[in-house]
């Protein structure tokens, strides 16, 4: 028996190579009714540096509850961004950022969202990366990597 071999289609190959291996990956709000962080997040499979315009895919499945993460805060008013790391979840971290903002505690994030016309309502927070286990050094390295890659820091 002779099998009919389908000729290799270059376009197939190209399409396949640019399609993420897991279509459901990305950051998604947890959609728990009590979650006070969900309204400040967005469902997304990618994010864009507002400084250099580079776009990155989120290759993991992340939500408000994911731990050991690198997160990205974007001001929806002026597009300034802030990268942070936490062993906790975006939900826990956001609660403390919001406390800092509301009390003008002098952190980079608090300073920004206390500028004229900026409020905590302009916070958009998503997790962009995650470490498989607890490791402060690796988390710090990842944070440094993302700060350099995105080329920005909130000011
Ligand atoms: Zn949530
Ligand atoms: Zn702003």
UniProtKB/TrEMBL annotation:
Name all GIY-YIG domain ranges: 66-155
Q: Which InterPro entries match?
A: GIY-YIG_endonuc, GIY-YIG_endonuc_sf
Any Pfam family from its record, for instance, is GIY-YIG
- Looking at the record, which segments are called Disordered? 1-27
Query: Record's superkingdom?
Result: Eukaryota
Compositionally skewed regions (Polar residues) per UniProt: 15-27
Put simply, this protein is called GIY-YIG domain-containing protein
Q: Which organism is it from?
A: Elysia marginata
List the lineage, top down: Eukaryota, Metazoa, Spiralia, Lophotrochozoa, Mollusca
